[in-house]
Amino acid sequence: MEKLLWSIAFPGFGQLLNGRYIKGIMIIALEILINVQANFNTAIIASFQGDISKAIQETNDQWLMFYPCLYFFAIWDAYKDAGGGENPYSFLPFVFGAYFVTVGLIFSSNLKLFGVLVGPVWLPMLFSIPGIGVGLLLKETISKIRNH
């Protein structure tokens, strides 16, 4: 669980804790590259300060589109290497989480919730909830079908 949480905090740290040093360093380097090119930290700060228009304006969506897949892959990989994921379908919540976050990012500059523009940080985070839920549901459903 510790490695999973470190990977959530910063992609690549879970791999380092699992002794996968080359993979961890590569994920950290990719995370930094994507983060800088996408201006993601600027978007996060603006979003937390309630300036969604600035977050949308500052974000480079072309780069930010890479972030969900890298992020969820790093979490899944750290989880798997730490001994999690005995179920062969344990990857599904991570994959669907990444997919839904990416879809949330696509609509983040236009979609309003309750009349409020949510932006490139909050909307993708909100989209992760149904994404992970769909992945968990599929994992359980496929597992039950395969076990019968």
Bin the strand percentage.
under 5%
Oligomer: single chain
Count every helix, treating DSSP H or I runs of 4 or more residues as helices: 9
Q: Return the string of H and E elements.
A: HHHHHHHHEEH
**Cα Rg:** 16 Å
What strand line-up does the widest sheet have?
1-2
Q: Major sheet, described briefly?
A: 2 strands, antiparallel
Q: Can you tell me the residue ranges where pLDDT is under 50 for at least 5 consecutive residues?
A: none
Structural class: mainly alpha
Shape: flat
The tally of structural domains comes to 1
**Average pLDDT number:** 93
E-strand count: 2
Transmembrane segments: 91-109, 121-138
Keywords: Membrane, Transmembrane, Transmembrane helix
Written description of the protein model:
There is one protein chain. With 148 residues, the protein is mostly helical. The chain has one domain (2-147). It contains nine helices and two strands, in the order ααααααααββα. It has helices at 2-9, 13-17, 21-38, 40-48, 52-58, 61-64, 67-81, 92-107, 119-147, and strands spanning 112-113, 116-117. Strands 1-2 form a two-stranded antiparallel sheet. β1 (112-113) and β2 form a beta hairpin. α1 runs antiparallel to α7 and α4 runs antiparallel to α5. The radius of gyration is 16 Å and the shape is flat.
Provide the fold topology.
Blueprint: H1 2-9, H2 13-17, H3 21-38, H4 40-48, H5 52-58, H6 61-64, H7 67-81, H8 92-107, E1 112-113, E2 116-117, H9 119-147
Antiparallel strand pairs: 1-2
Keywords:
2 strands; flat
